[in-house]
Specification:
The chain is an alpha+beta fold. The chain contains seven helices and seven strands. The protein is 41% helix and 26% strand.
């Protein structure tokens, strides 16, 4: 029976590197704090409440989730505002994916989609004038923004955009901030909230 472990030169160096884990904890802690600030931003909360009237208070309570293995890499998610009912969903999801990017998603389905889609279609020029992606896959929980799952809205006509949403039964919009721009991630998340609010108004 083979019991010997063979390591590459890179693996030999990595297995003895304990400082990485303390640095990782510090980075994750800083990003959790950043997401917490976004989720507790009073101006954002008040402006969402002006758009999403008659909603339960829990919709506006931020929730931060974290994990170690989204396609093999750690991640953090802020859901705010958030509604995850079986057939009715409304969420703005702020996403950090280790080594990849920061992203902001707007997810709508069910009654909220039916109610807000006409406004979004009337504001379609806002989507084609920026680097905004739309999910073209039937799985709404994919956060890997690539050409297999997402398309730039500027590459779709308004009819193609609408037909994609109706076929999939949900709308998911996304924007990306490169990981190298981590120093402006907080401003990016807040700006995207305001952009989504304008799109829905």
């Amino acid at each position: 029976m083979q019991t010997k472990v063979i390591l590459s030169e890179v693996e030999k160096i990595t297995i003895g590197n304990t400082s990485f884990f303390s640095v990782k904890r510090e980075i994750i802690s800083k990003i959790i704090n950043l997401l917490g600030e976004v989720g507790n931003n009073k101006q954002l909360i008040d402006s969402w409440k002006n758009i999403l009237v008659n909603e339960e208070e829990k919709l506006f309570e931020p929730k931060i989730s974290k994990g170690e293995n989204y396609l093999g890499l750690p991640y953090l998610i802020l859901d705010f505002p958030k509604k995850f009912e079986e057939d009715n969903q409304f969420a703005v999801r702020s996403f950090f994916w280790w080594g990849k990017y920061f992203a902001n998603f707007l997810l709508l389905s069910g009654n909220d989609l039916k109610k807000l889609l006409p406004t979004i279609l009337s504001n379609y020029s806002m989507l084609i004038n920026k680097e905004i992606f739309v999910s073209i896959n039937d799985d709404r929980w994919i956060h890997s923004i690539d050409t297999d799952y997402y398309s730039l809205t500027k590459n779709l006509s308004v009819d193609e955009f609408e037909n994609t949403i109706k076929k999939n039964g949900y709308l998911k919009l996304a924007t990306i901030l490169p990981i190298a721009d981590f120093d402006i991630a907080g401003d990016y998340f807040v700006e995207q909230h305001f952009f989504f609010q304008k799109l829905l108004s």
